[in-house]
Design brief:
Helix content is about 30%, strand content about 25%. It is α/β, with parallel strands linked by helices and about 375 residues long. It has two domains: about 200 residues, TIM Barrel (Alpha-Beta Barrel), CATH 3.20.20.10; about 130 residues, Lyase, Ornithine Decarboxylase, Chain A, domain 1 (Beta Barrel), CATH 2.40.37.10. Strands 2, 3, 4, 5, 6, 7, 8, 9 and 10 form a nine-stranded parallel beta sheet that branches. The chain has a five-stranded mixed beta sheet with strand order 18-17-11-1-19. Strands 12-13-16 form a three-stranded antiparallel beta sheet, with no helix packed on it. Helix 1 crosses helix 3 and helix 5 packs across helix 6. It is elongated, with a radius of gyration of 24 Å. The protein starts with a strand and ends with a strand.
């Protein structure tokens, strides 16, 4: 069996969920705020089915996914959960009635980001005799998808005229919620508030209004409305160094493998493809069966470290598709079969996704999502 695995601690997920819930209560006492656990992209690499089951068990009100394939895969695991699909609907030209019937069968909640989608769902839902539940997406400044906030009133008014849609919610998404400079986030929020006020005056009300992602939960409490959408903070990382320790979080994934081969080499011996690394003295080299095919970044070649026991060892030579090598030093203190920590924390040693992301000048989201499907997920509770 391949010893490379991602160990997922569901107790730590529970800790993070409860930390978020407690923080919401502290910031907005007396207000019941729903939680939509964001589980898109295979729950940020942690396993969408297992993470979603645990979140529903913990009391999450909604689950948020990126597309309909994710939602359908998830439905068999959480048969009664509210599943909100953030992505746009593809308007099937082949068998649209069958397409909508399938989505209705799985009881999914659609994002309506255009009038075309609203018309499509309304027409075919009418033919099928069942209302489709939707949330309307407003673009207040991210410029990704959604009704432009400047023209949104007329668009929303038109959607309210459709008889076969159940309009459950309305939402927006922030571009800079994790930034200590709140100027643009507040600009977006004010635009959203203005639209909601106008819609309410026009008799258009929504059971669920939401806008707060992880950054906004920590940085913009006026954005909570009826529901928040934590993503990265569920998995134990902060969206920005600026907000560390506002709430207590624990990374829930440890990416691990084992030393499976050790060889002794002479000084001035090249290691791996391209001969980018040479030993400076006689050394033991350990080979570990994980590489960029598993989602461990090749850019960490010759600059990354791993933890074996309680010691750090440098990655030596280019990381390959299935292997990486580490220099174990002149005196052998590591054995074949020893555990290797590549991302996460153990026994006080820390190689979190945020630390690796800083080395690579990227973000922890990318480090987590990169963990490949071929890496076995092992769950602890």
């Amino acid at each position: 069996m391949n010893p490379t695995r991602a160990e997922i601690d569901l107790k730590k997920l529970e800790h993070n969920f409860n930390s978020i819930r407690s923080y919401l209560k502290k910031e907005k006492p007396g207000k019941k705020i729903k939680i939509c656990g964001v589980v898109k992209a295979n729950a940020y690499g942690h396993g969408i089915q297992e993470i979603s089951s645990k979140l529903i068990e913990l009391g999450a009100d909604f689950l948020g996914v990126a597309n309909y394939d994710e939602a359908i895969k998830l439905r068999s695991v959480v048969p009664d959960a509210n599943i909100l699909v953030f992505g746009t609907l593809i308007h099937s030209k082949l068998k649209p009635a069958a397409y909508v019937k399938k989505l209705l069968k799985y009881n999914l909640i659609a994002t309506v980001a255009s009038l075309d989608t609203a018309k499509f769902l309304d027409y075919y839902s009418g033919k099928l005799g069942r209302k489709f539940k939707v949330h309307i997406k407003i673009d207040t400044g991210l410029k990704r998808i959604g009704f432009d906030v400047k023209q949104a009133y007329k668009n929303v008014e038109q959607i309210f005229g459709y008889r076969n849609l159940e309009i459950e919610g309305i939402y927006t998404h922030f571009a800079t919620s994790e930034s200590p400079d709140k100027t643009f986030a507040k600009h977006q929020l004010n635009k959203f508030y203005d639209l909601l006020h106008s819609l309410k005056k026009g008799g258009m009300n929504f059971p669920i209004v939401h806008s707060a992602n992880s950054g906004a939960i920590l940085n913009l409490k006026d954005s909570y409305f009826d529901m928040v959408r934590p993503g990265l903070i569920l998995y134990g990382y902060y969206p920005s160094e600026n907000f560390k320790n506002i709430i207590d979080l624990k990374p829930i994934m440890n990416l691990k493998s084992r030393v499976t081969f050790i060889k002794r080499v002479d000084a001035n011996t090249s290691i791996s493809y391209g001969r980018k690394y040479f030993t400076d003295k006689k050394s033991f080299i350990g080979s570990i069966p994980i590489g960029y095919g598993d989602g461990y970044w090749r850019a960490l070649s010759n600059i990354g470290k791993v933890v074996i026991g309680n010691r750090y060892y440098p990655i030596s030579g280019n990381i390959t598709m299935d292997w990486l090598m580490v220099n174990l030093g002149a005196k052998r203190k590591v054995s074949v079969g020893d555990d290797v920590l590549l991302m996460g924390s153990q026994n006080g040693e820390y190689l979190g996704a945020d630390r690796l992301a800083r080395i690579l000048k990227t973000i922890p989201y990318e480090m987590l999502c990169a963990v490949a499907d071929r890496v076995q997920r092992v769950y602890f509770s």
